[in-house]
Design goal:
With about 325 residues, this protein is α/β, with parallel strands linked by helices. The protein contains 11 helices and 12 strands. It has helices at about 1-10, 15-25, 30-35, 40-55, 70-100, 115-125, 140-150, 210-225, 240-245, 255-265, 295-315; strands spanning about 60, 65-70, 105-110, 130-135, 155, 170-175, 180-185, 205, 235, 250-255, 270, 280-290. The longest helix is centred in the N-terminal third of the chain and has 29 residues, at about 70-100. It starts with a helix and ends in a 12-residue tail after the last helix.
Length: about 325
């Protein structure tokens, strides 16, 4: 391993990494060479030199073009990380020199955004108004791939969904409790506790099958002895979900309580008194283990953790509410 590292440090060129990415994108040495403004023979030689450094081939030739093998996929992934980091470096240097500040790219699951991510971002923006901030909302699995590629500085989500969670640093923040909701125009619901079976006459607005909340609803339906709805409306968009629920009194859906809360307070949704049997899913701060965080990323993480600690302190110190005795008739 040490010999390979020494060879790469002394002989590896950025142009070879760019060539790998072009080959992965175009699956053709001829097309990749054109993108790189190189002759095909020069591109072939650069690839051979890189494969010689690693002492193994990186691509397989097939009818559909040049397809990266397992080692090729690994090297290409790191090539994208390196080039992305260098691009971000140049952008940050230019912005800092111009006085506009740096850049922060944050990924977050839906339930963590209102009460966790947004307050921390507001504090960070107030302290660093010149900072450029990008927020991506997606599933943890998809955002971890972007974290690996260097397109995100950190993820507020779950590391456990990764094939190898040990390659990430994970710092827990909180839970993502879920609630069942209907539109506000829905007839008032009984205050007693309901079950999913009581909603069998409703049509569900569900998440796509690749999302964890879809699997959770499947589990809840199974525990209730029910089949999954065979005519659902599927969407990953909170906006679409709320708009659909508002438009009909026959639709029902599942939302993180932090997302549903504001819509309930503004009389756009109603919470259904269904007690879910699955435990709340936890989430936290996920970063690449061994990666170097930018100052804005470190500041943002400190704000997130400070909020969590403050919330825990307030929960422990808040006095218990005692129900006032009823007046005798």
């Amino acid at each position: 391993m040490k010999d390979t590292l020494n060879v790469l440090l002394s002989k590896l060129r950025m142009k070879q990494l760019h060539l790998l990415i072009a080959l992965d994108d175009h699956k053709s040495l001829h097309k990749a060479a054109g993108v790189m403004s190189m002759t095909q023979s020069a591109a072939s030689k650069a690839l051979q030199e890189l494969e010689s450094m690693l002492d193994a081939p990186l691509f397989e030739r097939s009818k559909s073009g040049m397809i990266p093998n397992q080692l090729g996929h690994c090297v290409i992934r790191y090539a994208r990380v390196v080039t992305t980091d260098l691009t971000a470096l140049c952008q940050d240097v230019a912005e800092i020199r111009s006085g506009r500040g740096g850049r922060l790219a944050v990924g977050a699951i839906m339930g963590a955004i209102p009460d966790c991510v947004v307050p921390a971002l507001n504090q960070l923006h107030a302290a660093q108004p010149g900072l450029s901030i990008e927020v991506v909302e997606d599933t943890s699995a998809r955002m971890l791939a972007q974290l690996d590629d260097g397109r995100l500085d950190l993820v507020v989500g779950r590391a456990a969904v990764a094939a190898d969670p040990s390659k990430y640093q994970y710092r827990p923040l909180g839970d993502e409790p879920l609630v069942v909701v209907v539109g506000y125009r829905h007839a008032p619901l009984p205050r007693r506790e309901m079950t999913l079976r009581d909603l069998s006459g409703h049509r569900w607005v569900m998440y796509p099958s690749h999302m964890p909340l879809h699997a959770l609803l499947e589990r809840e339906m199974d525990l209730a002895g029910l089949d999954m709805p065979d005519n659902p409306i599927s969407t990953a968009s909170t906006f679409v979900t709320v708009a659909l629920l508002q438009s009909s009194d026959e639709l029902v859906s599942l939302l993180p309580s932090a997302i549903a809360g504001p819509y309930v307070r503004h009389k756009m949704l109603r919470m259904v008194p269904v007690r879910l049997k699955s435990p709340s899913q936890t989430f936290g701060i996920v970063t690449r283990k061994g990666g170097v965080l930018s100052p804005p990323a470190e500041k943002f993480i400190a704000l997130l953790r400070g909020q969590t600690q403050q919330g825990q302190t307030q929960t422990r110190s808040s006095p218990r509410q005692v129900k006032a005795p009823e007046k005798s008739a």
